[in-house]
Amino acid sequence: MKEDIERVLLTEEEIQKKVQEIGEKISADFADKNPIFVGVLKGCFVFMADLMRCVTIPCTMDFMAVSSYSGTNSTGAVKINKDLNQDIGGRHIILVEDILDSGVTLNYLKNYLMVSKPASVSIVTLLDKPARRRADIHADYSCFVVPDAFVVGYGLDYNEHYRNLPYIGILKPEVYS
Ligand code: IMP
Ligand code: MG
User: Fold this and answer.
1) Residues with Cβ within 5 Å of ion ligand 2?
2) Helices 45-52 and 12-29, interaxial angle, to 10°?
3) Is the pTM of the predicted complex or chain greater than 0.85?
């Protein structure tokens, strides 16, 4: 697995430090708002597990599963494979994503959730790759801005692999070309 990584972009220590910071910020901003953290599966699972342990306010969690990607290229189409099973009307929603790339997925999800009239929808993303943005969407909380390279680890995959790497690494192009 390690031999497929060109270089480590973010170490475990760097990630933990930043996740702690963002957790504190969200805790301050949403104190007394009892937000629902909605993880976007599967990529969010490692980040969300760490983030939630840095959030110190009352909150609940739920998950959605979407697919929009095959390999390294977005198909542009978003499909909801698992929806929320609770009423979110009047509630504060915090979407938790692994990476904001073209923005198509989060833009679609945000609009989809808005239909149920929540009090607010905020976005927290581990990584932000602004170079490839196509949708008019931004993250309210972003841990790291990353260059236009395909990255894996800490929940992020290439064809379902590498999610279990504890750091974020740039995948060698020959692996996917
Ligand atoms: P978007 O709709 O283009 O913003 O795509 C978001 C989704 O694409 C993320 O949740 C990831 O699953 C996937 N994705 C985008 N860039 C990368 C990357 O560099 N590595 C792994 N997955 C990525
Ligand atoms: Mg994903």
Assistant:
1) 43
2) 60
3) yes
Helix H, strand E, coil C: the string for 96-113 is EEEEECCCHHHHHHHHHH
pLDDT in tens, 77-94: 789 999 998 999 999 999
Residue owning the nearest CA to atom 15 of ligand 1 = 101
* Burial of 138 per CB tally in 10 Å (0-12, 13-18, 19+): middle
Query: Which ligand sits closest to the CA of 45?
Result: 2
Active-site amino acid positions: 101
The ligand whose atoms approach the alpha carbon of 100 most closely is 1
What is the 32 CA–ligand 2 centroid distance (Å)? 30
Backbone angles phi, psi at 90, to 5 degrees: 75, 0
Give the DSSP H/E element, type plus range, for residue 21: helix 12-29
